[in-house]
Queue: 3 jobs
Job 1
Amino acid sequence: MREAATATAVRATIGDSEFDRDTAVTRRVPGVYDVGLSAGWTVFGAVNGGYLLAVLGRALADALPHSDPFTVSAHYLTACRPGPAVVRTDVVRTGRTLSTGQASLLQCDEDGNEVERIRVLASYGDLDALPDDVRTTAQPPAIPPIDQCFGPQDAAGVPLPSGDPAPVAGSSAITGRLTLKLDPATLGWALGSPSGKGEMRAWFGLADGRDADPLSLLLTVDALPPTAFELGLEGWVPTVELTVHVRCRPAPGPLRVSITTRNLAGGFLEEDAEVWDSAGRLVAQSRQLARVRLG
Amino acid sequence: MREAATATAVRATIGDSEFDRDTAVTRRVPGVYDVGLSAGWTVFGAVNGGYLLAVLGRALADALPHSDPFTVSAHYLTACRPGPAVVRTDVVRTGRTLSTGQASLLQCDEDGNEVERIRVLASYGDLDALPDDVRTTAQPPAIPPIDQCFGPQDAAGVPLPSGDPAPVAGSSAITGRLTLKLDPATLGWALGSPSGKGEMRAWFGLADGRDADPLSLLLTVDALPPTAFELGLEGWVPTVELTVHVRCRPAPGPLRVSITTRNLAGGFLEEDAEVWDSAGRLVAQSRQLARVRLG
C-alpha cells in the first residue's frame, strides 16, 4: 500500500527523473560535456549500452540545432565504468530538416590518459515537424497483458542451468530503475528451459514513472535480457555496434518492446528491436551486432 | 550467341573487374585516398549509395589492420556527383579481433571548397577467423528460379503510372553493371500495379561475372529498386543512414537479396536487406533509413 501511494505521489516527469539526472551533461566548452556515469544502470558491473547511448544522445541534442535523434549509430570500443566521463561532439553538417553530428565518450585510465569508450554518428531532426502519414504494415508484438508478465523481482533467485541466479535478478542495479515485465513465452531461459527461439518481449517503463521521450528510447532498445539467453547461451553479450531509428515521439504510458535474432553465426548475432507506444505507434526500431560466447 | 561466348571468355574475377576498377582507391598520404567516382553506377544521375559505401569500405580496408567490414554505418550528407573525390580515414581503435575506423568522402564544389558527402563509422575484422558455428533460424527468401525472374532489360520501356519509363530501365547506368533478376511477385510497380507490400526480392550478380566478396556486399544491399515502389510511391528515396553487417564471406555464384519495409511513416521508411549466397548462408544484413516523397 505504502509503495503504491509513494509511487503515485512522486511520479517523475520528463526533465525531473532518475533517467534525466543520470544522463545529464554539463557543457564545459562548446561541444565538450562533462558527465557522470551512474552505477545505477549497470548489468553485473557493466554499464548498460542503451543508457550510455542516451548520455551521448543528450550531448548531441545540445550540440546540434535539432533536438530529436532520428538515427544514431554507435560503435562500442572499450567497456565503460561508472564515474566521470567526457563527451566530445563535432557538428558534421547542419541542414534545414536534418543535422548530423559525431560524438565520442571518453574516460581516463589509471594513468590519467583519455581512452575512447564509444563513438557515435547521428542525424537529428524535429519529430513534431513530420507529417502524420502512417502506412506501416508492422503490427505490435503479441504480448500478454502486463499483469500476466513477469518482472525481475518475480524471477529473482530462479537458478540458471549454471547455478548462477537469473541475470534479471536484483544483482543488476538497472533492474531497480526499470519496470520490465517479460512475456512468459520468452522467459524459458530463467526457468532452465530456453525456447530455442531468438525472441524476447516485454512491457517497458521507467521505475519512477517518467514517461518515454526520444532520448529514453535510446535506452529502451537495449534494456531487455539478451535474446541469446533464449537461444541457450549464457554470459555477457557485448554490443559491437548499435543503430537506433526514432520514428515518432512516444505517447505517455507503457511501451511494448520486441527483440528478435535471426542470425546467430560465427560468434556474432544481430538483435532487432521494435518499440511500440501505448497509442499503437511503432516509435523506434534498432539493430545491433553483438558478440556471443559459444558454448 | 556472341554475347554468351564473350561473357564466358572475359568473366571477371575479384580484383580484376568493373567493380574493382571503379572502387579503386589511391593512397595519397597515409589515411588519405584519391578516388574517381564512376558514372557507371548512377541511378538517374545520382551515384548509388551502395557503390559509394564500397569505395569508402575499400579505403578503410587499407587503413585498418583488418580487411573485412563487419559492421559499417554510413550517414549520407550531400549528393555525390561522378568524378574525383577524396576519402579521409581515421583509425579510432585497433584491437586483436576488431578494429574501428572512420572515413569521410569529400568532393570539391564549384568554388574548390571541399564538401563532405558521406561519413562512415566501421568495425573491421577477419571473416575467415570466425568459427563455423551457425544456429541461424533465418530462412532464405522464397524467390522463383532465376529464369522465371525479370531483369531491367525485360522491364525497359514499361511505363510507370506517371508515364516515366520504369526506373530499372536502361536510362540508369547501373543496370548495365548488374545482373538483377526481380521476383515477379515484387514487380507489380513496373506494371502499374504495386502490391502494397513493402517487399522487393531479386537474384543479384555483377554483370561481368565477378563473384561477390565482403566489399561488393556493401553494394548489393542497396542495389534493388526501392520497396517504396511496391508501396505505390514514386521518385527518389534518398538514404539518410545505412548500416551493413557482413556476417560471412560469400560463396561464388548468384546471390539472393530480400528487402523489407515494415514502417512507412512521417515521410521516412526503413529498408531491411538480407543477402544469401549460393551455399545458403546469410552473408549480409542491412538496414537503412530513407526519406520518401509522400503522394
Job 2
Amino acid sequence: MSSLLFLEIRAQLVEQQKCLEQQTEMRVQLLQDLQDFFRKKAEIETEYSRNLEKLAERFMAKTRSTKDHQQYKKDQNLLSPVNCWYLLLNQVRRESKDHATLSDIYLNNVIMRFMQISEDSTRMFKKSKEIAFQLHEDLMKVLNELYTVMKTYHMYHAESISAESKLKEAEKQEEKQIGRSGDPVFHIRLEERHQRRSSVKKIEKMKEKRQAKYSENKLKSIKARNEYLLTLEATNASVFKYYIHDLSDLIDCCDLGYHASLNRALRTYLSAEYNLETSRHEGLDIIENAVDNLEPRSDKQRFMEMYPAAFCPPMKFEFQSHMGDEVSAQQPVQAELMLRYQQLQSRLATLKIENEEVKKTTEATLQTIQDMVTIEDYDVSECFQHSRSTESVKSTVSETYLSKPSIAKRRANQQETEQFYFMVGPCKCYCFSFHLHDI
Amino acid sequence: MSSLLFLEIRAQLVEQQKCLEQQTEMRVQLLQDLQDFFRKKAEIETEYSRNLEKLAERFMAKTRSTKDHQQYKKDQNLLSPVNCWYLLLNQVRRESKDHATLSDIYLNNVIMRFMQISEDSTRMFKKSKEIAFQLHEDLMKVLNELYTVMKTYHMYHAESISAESKLKEAEKQEEKQIGRSGDPVFHIRLEERHQRRSSVKKIEKMKEKRQAKYSENKLKSIKARNEYLLTLEATNASVFKYYIHDLSDLIDCCDLGYHASLNRALRTYLSAEYNLETSRHEGLDIIENAVDNLEPRSDKQRFMEMYPAAFCPPMKFEFQSHMGDEVSAQQPVQAELMLRYQQLQSRLATLKIENEEVKKTTEATLQTIQDMVTIEDYDVSECFQHSRSTESVKSTVSETYLSKPSIAKRRANQQETEQFYFMVGPCKCYCFSFHLHDI
C-alpha cells in the first residue's frame, strides 16, 4: 500500500510539470495572438489615417484657391459657416494624425511589450522547471528512504519474532527434563541417573544461547521501528511542505512579473486610446464653439463690408434752384399748403397704423419660422446605445433622422409659412414714403 | 448733376443683386462641398468599420474553439489575462458597430440636411429677388418723379422770369409817353395832340395784359417749386429707407433659416461624434477595469482547480506495523532517543535561523523585481499633443516607448535580479525537513 502511494506521488509530480508547461504554452499563444491582433489593428489604423488625410487634403486644396481662403490668410475673419467648414477639415486632419500615432504606438510599444512578456514567461518556466527537478529529486530521496527503513524494520521484527519462538521451544524441553527427574529413586539403575544429568546441562546451554540471540534481535527491531517512525514523520512533513508551499512557489516562479507586465502593456494601449479620445474631443469642442458662433448679423455685416461700392447709401438729393431763386413759402399759396399738409398728416396716421399691423403679423410669422428652423432634432445618442448583445444597435439607425414622411410634412409646413411671410412681410414695409404721392 | 446720381443709384441696385446672387452661389457651393465631404467620410468610416469587424471575427473564431472559451460559456470565470483578451475583441466589435452607425448617420441624416439647406437657400434667394425687383421699380418711380417735378419747376420759373421782363419793358414805354406830354402847349397843333392821347391808352392796355401774364406764371412757378421741394424730401426719405432698412431686409430674406439649419446639421454631426466617443470610452473603461483585476493569486487558484488530480496533496503515510507490533518507546533505547532528540533540536534551531536569512533576502529581491515590473512607463499622452501646427506630433512618437538602449539596459538589470532571486530563493526554502536525515 505504501509503495502504491509512492507511484501515485511520482505520477503526480510528472503531471504537475505537464500542467505548468501547458500553462506557459497557453500564455505564449495568447501573447502571440495579442501581437498579431495589434499588428493587424495597426494596419487598419494606418489605412484609416491615410484615407482621412487624403480626404482633408482634397478639400483643403479645393478651398485654398478660393477668395475666402485668401481672406482667411489675411485676417482670420471669415463668414461663420466657412469657418465651421475649415474647422471640420482641421478635425479630419487631427483625427488622421491621431490614428497614425495610435498605429505607431501599437507597433513600437505595445507589441514589443507583448514580445518581451512572452520571452519572460518562457524563461520563467525554464527556471521553475529546474527548481521543480531539484524538489522532486529530494522528495523521491525521502520517499525511498522511508521505504527502506520500513523494510528494515519489518525484517528485524520478523527475525526477533523467530528468535523468540526458538527460545520458547528450548524452555519447553528444559521443563520436560526437570519433570522426569522427579520419579522414585529406589528402582533406577546407577548408570541411567548419570545419563540424565548430562542432557539437562545441554538443554541449559542451548536455552542461554537462544536467549541472547533473541534479546539482540529484539533490540535491533526496536531501533529499526523508531527509525521508521521518525522517518515517517519527516517524510509526511516534507510531502506536506512540498504540496502546500513549494508547489505554490513553483507556480509563483512561472508567474513572476507576468501579470504586472501584461498590466503595463494593456495600460499603454489604454493610455493611447484615451489620449486619442481626448484629442478628438478637443477638436470637436472647437467645432462646437464655431457652431455656437454661426451668426447671421455679423455675417451680414461682413457681406456688406466686402462690397462697399454696392451697399453704401448715395448722397442726399439737394434742392436745385433755378437762376438765383431762393426758397421761401410765398403768400399766395399758403392756404393751399396748409390744406395739403393736413391731408398728408391724416394719410400718414393711417399708414402708421397699417404698418404697425404689418409689423405685428410679420414678426409673428417670422417667429414661427424661427421656431421651425431651430427645432432641436439633432440628438442621435440613441443610435450608440450598446445593449450587452450589441446586435440591437443597427436597427435604431434608420430612425435617427425623423422618418421621411414627417420631414416632408414639416418642410411643406415651413414653406407654407414662408409664403405667408413674404406675402405680408418685407414687400409691405416700404410702402410708407411712396404714398405721399398718391394724394 | 441730379441725373448723374440717378444713374449711379440704378447701377448700384444692379450691383446689389449681383452680390446677393454671388453669395447664394457660394452657399450652394459650400453645401455641395459639405455633402461630398460627408459622403466620402461615410465611405471611409464604413471601410474602417468593416476592417475592425473582420479583425474581431478572425480572432473570435480562433478563440471560440479553445478550452478556455468553453469554460467561458459555462461560467464567466476566466483567467484574468484571457478575460482582458476577450474584452479587447469586444471593444473592437463595439468600435466597428459605432463607426458603421456614424457612417449611417452621415448618409441618412447629415447629408440630407445639407441638401435641404441648399434648396432653401436657392428658394430664399428667388423670393428676395422678386421683392428686390418690386423695391427697385418703386424706387425708380420716385426718382423719375423727382426728375420731372424739378424740370417742371425750372420751366415755370423761366417763364415767370420772361413774363416779368416783358412787364418791365411795358412800364418803361409808359413813362416815356408821360414825359413827352409835359412840353409847352401853345406852339402844338390840335391834331397832334389827339394822336398822342390814343398811344398812351394803347401802352396802358399792353401793360395790364403783361401784368396778368406775369402773376399767372409767377404762381405756377411757386407751386412747381413747392411740389419739387416736397418730392425732394419724399425721395430722400425713400432712398434712405431703402438703403438703411429694405436692403438689410433683402439680405435677411436670403439668410432666412440658413444659419439655424446649418447649425442643426452640424450639431447632428457633433452629436454623432460625441456619442461615438462616449460609447468608445465606456468600452475602454470596461477593459481598464479588467486590467485592474489582473490578479496572479486568483489565477493560480483557478489554475490548480482546473487540474485537481495534479495538485491535491496525497494522503499521509501511516505507520505500517509488522504482525501485531504496537508502537511504544521501549526502555532499552530511551537514553539513545533522548540524545538524538537533542541533536535534532539544535540542528532545527540553526536551520530556522538559516531559513529566516533566506526569507529576508528572497523577499527583498522579490520586492526589487516587483518594483521593476510595476514601473509606470505606459503614459503616452505626449504623443497626442496638438500644437497649432500639428506637424510636431509625429516626431515624439518614436520616443513613446523609452528609447531602445534604455529598455535593453532595464531588461538586463531585471534578469540579473531574477538570477539572484532564483539562486537564493525558492531552491533553499524546502531544505528544512530533509536535513533531519543528515544526522
Job 3
Amino acid sequence: MNYGMGLLDALAEKFGVFPGISEKTAWKMVFHVLKMPKDIATNLANDIIQVSEKMKKCQVCRCFTETEICHICCDETRDKSMVCVIQNMKDMFAFERMGYKGVYHVLDGLLSPMNGIGPEDIGICELLARVENSVISEIIMAIGPTVEGDATTNYIFSLLKPLGITVTRLAYGLPVGSSLEYTDDVTLNAALEGRNEI
Amino acid sequence: MNYGMGLLDALAEKFGVFPGISEKTAWKMVFHVLKMPKDIATNLANDIIQVSEKMKKCQVCRCFTETEICHICCDETRDKSMVCVIQNMKDMFAFERMGYKGVYHVLDGLLSPMNGIGPEDIGICELLARVENSVISEIIMAIGPTVEGDATTNYIFSLLKPLGITVTRLAYGLPVGSSLEYTDDVTLNAALEGRNEI
C-alpha cells in the first residue's frame, strides 16, 4: 500500500519484493533504516552494490565468490577428489555447518524440461568438463529427493557412469531423532529398502 | 554464522540486524540481491542512502518527511483543528488506511521514567507549543492502553486540560467481530464500563 510518503514508500516497496518479507516487515525495515546512523546505512547500501556488482561464479565449483576461484576451491586442506553436487549455494551452507571437507559443484537449480531448463542451463556441462579435466574419485549427489531432483540426479549419473567415476547419493531414511509413528510411508519404505546390517 | 564468504557474509549480517529478519531470511535476501539486475540493486542502495540522509521530521507534526512540512500537514482538505496524538509513525498508517481526515502529532515513543525518557525526549513540549500557537478544537489521544501508554496519555491530558482544549481518547471495548468467549477480563471490563445506550 502506498501512503503518499515518497521515499519511504519507494523503499518499503523495494524491501517488499524480497522473498519472505511481508509488507509489514518491509515497513519495519524502513523504520529501522530511518533510525540507523548514516554511516551504517551507507555501509549497507555499499554492500548491496558490491554484492550485486562484484560477485561472480567460481571458475571451478560455480559458487558465488569475489575472486576467480572461491575460498573453498583454494583451500589446500580440502579433499579436491570428493565433489558434492548441490542444486544451489544455500545447500552448501548446510554442508559447511556440518564440517564437510570435500569440495562442491553448484548447479543453477534442477532440470525442468517442462520449463525449458536443460543441462546446459544449470551447469551440468561444466561438471562433465571438470570431471574430465581433474582427478576426482567420488561424486556425491546431494540433491533433494523430489521428482525434479531425482530426474537431475539420474541424468547426471547416466553421464558420469561411462566415465568410470564412483557416484554416490545421500542416504534416504528416517531423520535422526524422528518417531516411526509420524514417518510418512515413502520415507519409511526408503528406510526399509536401505536397511543396513548392524 | 560466518561462512567465510566475505561480502556475502557481511551483507547477510547487516540484513540480520533488521527487526523480524532471521539469519535464514537474511541469507535469502542476500541470494535475492545476487539474482537482482544490477540497476535494481543500485536503486535499492540509493533509496537506503536517501532515506537515511534526506528524511527529517515535519516541523508541524514530527512525522518523517523529505520536505519541511509533510504532505499531510500541507493537505488543504484535512481538518487541521483535529490532532491525533500517536506514539510513532507506524500508527499513522493504521489511521491513514482507515481514511482519517484530521492531522497528527507523532511522539518518539512513550514516557518511561525508569529508562530516563521524559516529556522533552518524546516531543510532548512540541505538542504543547503547537496547541498554544494554532487553532485546535480536539486532541485525540491514540496511544495503546499499556501501562506506559496510559501514563503518557494521562500526563499529556494533565498538561492540556488547563488550556481548555477538548481531549478525547480512543474507546476501549470489544474488537469488532470478536467473540465474547475469548475476550480477556480487562477488555470485557472496559467494554462494560464504556457501555452505550442503544
